[in-house]
Design brief:
single chain; about 280 residues; Rossmann fold; alpha/beta; 11 helices; globular; about 45% helix
Length: about 280
């Protein structure tokens, strides 16, 4: 494995920060080495300086996208942390449906955004939970959007096919048999669930143009990759696209305390969610 020098790390960290907003501090050298060495092998790079040169001279930004894909790959699995799904199922969605039904005689609208959806397991888990609640596109105007900075992650999420290891993490046998069809050594999510969701590429550091407003936003386990200043910017932009009575859900170990004062924490059983002031 090609090792990274201190100077190369500084150069690559700056390049990745400017391209994606992902902040890699000193101490992340091993992560950069393990994530980028396979790409360097494919490109025939002899050093990280060589990778940087090739990326900078690639005007189509194909190499840049592949670097971001490799660096931004996050751990994810179905029904990760049960608390947010219980919160959605027993508190947020029932309250939201009640409020939206009173507002209009038309189909109640439910708009949900998973702001760092990775390879799709979180959003598909939400779609399955909603289906189990009897919420379908026949009776509700449902829009479930997942976005991620990684082209590779968005492509995989959109296709909705997972290997044995991915399926084994978080999915029980009942849900697997109900919502997936086996294809050789992998499983593909059924169209009934797949048609409930949409995935697209989005850099959270860029303006949220054309997204519209959302009733529920999940932004879990992604802010650790951004600087404090960038976290404040992102939360400010999130506040702009969250409905006044909407709900923000962050990671179970995360807090907004040092990043923004635009939201008020609310508690339900053991879970915390946030609403606009």
């Amino acid at each position: 494995m090609i090792k990274i020098t201190s100077t190369e790390f500084d150069v690559m960290a700056k390049y990745i920060l400017e391209a994606s907003g992902i902040s890699l501090n000193k101490g992340k050298e091993y992560l950069m080495e393990t994530r980028l060495n396979p790409l360097m092998d494919q490109l025939g790079c002899t050093s990280f300086a060589d990778l940087h040169r090739k990326a900078k001279s690639d005007f189509k930004q194909t190499i840049q996208n592949r670097i971001i894909d490799a660096i931004s790959t996050n751990e994810t699995y179905f029904f990760r942390d049960k608390a947010p799904f219980e919160l959605l199922k027993f508190k947020i969605l029932p309250d939201l449906i009640d409020k939206r039904s009173k507002k209009s005689s038309l189909q109640p609208s439910i708009r949900l955004w998973s702001a760092a959806s990775s390879t799709g397991q979180e959003l598909y888990s939400i779609a399955m939970a909603m289906h189990e609640m009897g919420l379908s596109r026949n009776s509700y105007n449902i829009k479930l959007l997942g976005t991620d900075i990684s082209d590779e992650a968005v492509s995989k999420a959109s296709y909705g096919q997972y290997n044995k290891f991915e399926i084994s993490r978080g999915l029980d046998t009942q849900r697997l048999n109900k919502y997936f069809t086996q294809h050789g050594e992998s499983w593909k999510i059924n169209d009934e669930i797949r048609f409930m969701v949409q995935f697209k590429k989005l850099n959270l550091m860029k303006p949220f143009i054309g997204l519209g407003k959302f009733d529920i936003i999940l932004c879990r386990n992604v802010m650790i990759y951004f600087t404090p200043e960038d976290r404040r910017k992102i939360y400010t932009n999130i506040a702009k696209v969250l409905e006044p009575d909407g709900y923000l859900i962050i990671g179970s170990t995360e807090s907004l305390a040092n990043d923004t004062d635009l939201f008020v924490p609310q508690r339900y059983l053991k879970s915390v969610f946030y609403q606009s002031k």
